[in-house]
Specification:
binds uracil, 6-stranded mixed β-sheet, alpha/beta, 43% helix, Uracil-DNA Glycosylase, subunit E
């Protein structure tokens, strides 16, 4: 069991690692910042969007443009603010011209998302739109039109969460008729947050500790050095 402080520190380390990421050469070459995520490091509710747009790329914070304003408004309508939740995207870097994330990019980036989920330990994970929903449900053939507003318990990495797919706020900006549906789905979030947390799977057995020989100690210490330093203001961590 890690304390909140340990999880927060590990999250910051993942953030620093992601800030220097070059796994997707095109995105690394064209981005201004890495929009890792923002909010409260041990939030009960986490939102997962698609990828940063132009504003997010500039500020290094997810959902600060038009879709973000709608997200803030919908949160306000259920009595929450951005400081009560944690907001991330499937991709941490902006795809040029806001094109769709490529399968290879999703593959390269998903480890950051899974580590965020493991460290933040949300009870409810609200996926915004198709990309996040398909990735976290591991089912590329079932889309948001069928799944929105239906919560289900899912084991993601080592933890069970309530997964709650809803439409992406940007879709509601383009297609106004979706706004009512999005609002109705959003209004169920307090009810989901009030439920008991889902039963957790048995943790894997700890392996027997191996005592390192002296040369290995040096290697381990060297591996701990994080080369890239990123400004933590971008993390917007509460
Ligand atoms: N759309 C997203 O999916 N994420 C953002 O951060 C902004 C717009």
């Amino acid at each position: 069991m890690r304390s909140v402080e340990q999880r927060r520190d590990e999250l910051k380390a993942v953030y620093r690692e992601a800030s220097g990421c070059t796994r997707c050469p095109q995105l690394a070459a064209t981005r201004q910042t890495v929009a890792f995520g923002s909010g409260t490091a041990d939030a009960d509710l986490m939102f997962v969007g698609e990828a940063p747009g132009a504003n997010e790329d500039k500020q290094g914070v997810p959902f600060v443009g038009q879709a973000g304003k709608l997200l803030d408004q919908l949160l306000g309508e259920i009595g929450l603010t951005r400081a009560d939740v944690f907001v991330v995207n499937v991709l941490k870097c902006r795809p040029p011209g806001n094109r769709d994330p490529l399968p290879q990019e999703i593959d390269n980036c998903q480890d950051y998302l899974f580590r965020q989920l493991e460290l933040i330990e949300p009870r409810v994970v609200c996926t915004l739109g198709n990309f996040a929903t398909k990735l976290l449900r591991k089912d590329p053939s079932t889309g948001i039109t069928k799944l929105h507003g239906r919560e289900e318990e899912r084991v993601i990495g080592p933890r069970a969460v309530r997964l709650y797919p809803i439409y992406h706020p940007a879709a509601a900006l383009y297609t106004r008729s979706l706004l009512d549906t999005l609002r109705a789905d959003f209004s169920r979030l307090p009810e989901l947050l009030a439920l008991d947390p889902p039963a957790q799977p048995e943790p894997p057995r700890e392996p027997e500790p191996v005592v390192p020989v002296p040369e290995q100690v040096e290697e381990i210490e060297a591996a701990r050095v994080i080369e890239h330093e990123a400004p933590e203001t971008q993390l917007g961590l509460f």
